[in-house]
Write a structure and sequence with these properties.
The protein is mainly beta. It has 1 helix and 39 strands. Strand 34 (464-472) and strand 35 form a beta hairpin.
């Protein structure tokens, strides 16, 4: 599949339907000088799957939000002090309480849920706002006074603001830019709970095709709607007459060579201004099988107020000078490393496949996963816990206490997507084996077409085992995932052939590591993950 989508006739909206701002009004001269520093950064700035980015700065801190589809909690909030080093701070949508399908209760929400949404900060009440539409049905708005939470739902609006961008204007009015090809602007009530007005403000010329992914800004008194042409272009609309236009359009980039070999064109992200007045554009790059990876480039402005991405040899640079920002107050929490599941809650690096049954898991003394579903289909199993893969290659190693498994239980470590494989344990007839299973598949409507075939196994004794999955997510071709196990945590034995991770874009989310435990006979069994480590070469 051509990752640029340049030859794909279906928009994201049509494909999915068939299958089922910037902080307020920063003023600046039109062309600030590009900030320079001795150090350099390398793209992608985050080699993990964070797509449809909205990015803002509040004081000396940068925040970004991303899509998570059917994963729960949804809409992660990333935090950085330098635009280059990021951590996961929390999630804006604590639970996907949008219908039973997000609970794996009689229906499934794969490739639904949290799509391109918006993150904003309102200085007047020192509150963060997250806004997004769900299932083409309605829009939800959540608020929090700190990105770590707690986040709570402020309101539900009957208009579905597709691919929305939320603007807090300099007079504190809330506006939303949204739409696909036909772009509209809505004004919200002062408390943000209701729509006051909505109006079409732009219709995309047929020569451009599809525009979506709105981000809404007020810069130097001008209103801008930043739009993507999926998945190979970026355009911007500008109005000098107010948020409802009229707007004129200019191309920002088209078919631009990206910074990841084998990856796509950087697009669909947001603009942000540093404390010193320099501007940057954070986009994502289609880089399957791993997903969509954030990349950062400096931006300058023309004298008449249009943004220009700064290129390196005619391409989005692999490296640029690091942004000139104040010394960070601390180092951010790495997105790789060890988790022993201490404390009283999961760390924000984790997201469940659909909403979990919270009575069937716990942390504190490791992660305990009690069986929550009787099924032979991992895609129907509740309480599968996922972690993004670190690119270009990384390894997940899990220490598992399986002494409380029961006959019929299946537990392990998966490479999870619409075509999946796993290494883990099967408990049958009082005996436990470590197995590799492949052939877990879905069709284009996300219905299960294969529940897996065991292709390698070995007996294990005792109550503990170490499971390992190595994932190569360099884009441009299907890539191998390999599995191994250990009985002492030191010497690992390869199990089964390499699994081919596909690079088709249509599932949108990239491959993830996934911890699971489900029953095939009866509930009651459990496993305990005492250690998880994500490492890179």
């Amino acid at each position: 599949m051509d990752l640029s989508w340049a030859h794909q006739p279906l928009t994201r909206r049509r494909t999915l339907a068939a299958a089922t701002g910037l902080a307020a009004g920063a003023l600046l001269p039109p062309g600030p000088a590009l900030a320079t520093a001795a150090a350099q950064y390398t793209n992608p700035v985050i080699w993990q799957d964070f797509a449809d980015i909205d990015i803002i700065r509040v004081g000396d801190t940068y925040y970004a939000s991303a899509s998570t589809m059917h994963y729960s909690p949804g809409a992660p909030v990333l935090r950085s002090y330098d635009l280059v080093n990021w951590e996961i701070a929390g999630h804006s949508v604590p639970v996907l309480d949008f219908g039973a399908k997000y609970d794996l209760n009689g229906a499934r929400g794969y490739v639904r849920g949290i799509w391109a949404s918006s993150l904003a900060y309102r200085p007047s009440n020192r509150t963060f706002y997250w806004l997004g539409q769900i299932d083409f049905a309605r829009t939800y708005l959540y608020t929090a006074t700190a990105v770590e939470g707690p986040w709570s739902r402020l309101t539900t609006i009957s208009t579905p603001y597709y691919d929305a961008g939320l603007l807090v204007d300099t007079d504190d009015t809330l506006y939303v830019a949204y739409g696909n090809t036909t772009i509209s602007v809505a004004q919200l009530s002062p408390d943000g709970r209701n729509q006051v007005r909505t109006q079409e403000v732009f219709r995309t010329p047929s020569s451009v095709g599809t525009l979506e992914g709105a981000r809404f800004y007020k810069i130097n008194g001008q209103y801008y709607i930043f739009l993507t042409r999926p998945a190979n272009g970026q355009y911007i609309l500008k109005s000098s007459s107010g948020p409802f236009g009229p707007y004129t359009m200019r191309q920002v980039l088209l078919d631009l060579r990206g910074p990841i070999p084998g990856g796509g064109v950087p697009h669909q992200g947001g603009l942000v201004r540093t404390q010193s007045g320099a501007w940057y554009y954070m986009a994502f790059v289609d880089a399957y099988p791993g997903g969509r990876m954030p990349a950062l480039a400096p931006v300058t402005w023309t004298a008449d107020g249009w943004p220009v991405v700064q290129l390196v040899n005619g391409a989005w640079g692999t490296t640029y000078p690091s942004p000139a920002v104040p010394t960070p107050p601390r180092q951010v929490t790495p997105m790789t490393g060890v988790d022993t599941f201490d404390g009283t809650a999961l760390k924000p690096r984790w997201e469940w496949n659909h909403n979990p049954d919270n009575t069937k898991w716990s942390v504190g003394d490791g992660l305990t996963l009690r069986t929550a579903t009787v099924t032979h289909d991992l895609y129907w199993a509740r309480n599968t816990l996922t972690h993004r893969i670190q690119g270009p290659t990384s390894t997940a190693t899990v220490q598992l206490d399986h002494s409380a498994m029961r006959d019929g239980d299946r537990a392990g470590l998966a490479l999870l997507r619409d075509s999946s494989a796993w290494i883990g344990l099967k408990r049958d007839g009082g005996a436990t084996r470590v197995v590799m299973v492949t052939g877990l598949t879905m069709d284009s409507n996300w219905n299960t077409t294969g529940t897996g075939t065991e292709i390698a196994s070995a007996p294990v004794s005792g109550g503990h085992v170490w499971l390992r999955a190595n994932a190569d997510i360099r884009p441009g071709a299907p890539r191998p995932g390999t599995f191994s196990y250990s009985t002492d945590g030191i010497t690992f034995t390869r199990l089964g052939p390499a699994f081919s991770m596909g690079n088709d874009w249509r599932f949108f989310m990239g491959y993830r590591f996934a911890l699971f435990n489900h029953a095939t006979q009866a509930l009651g069994g459990a496993v305990r993950v005492t250690r998880f480590e994500l490492s890179t070469p």
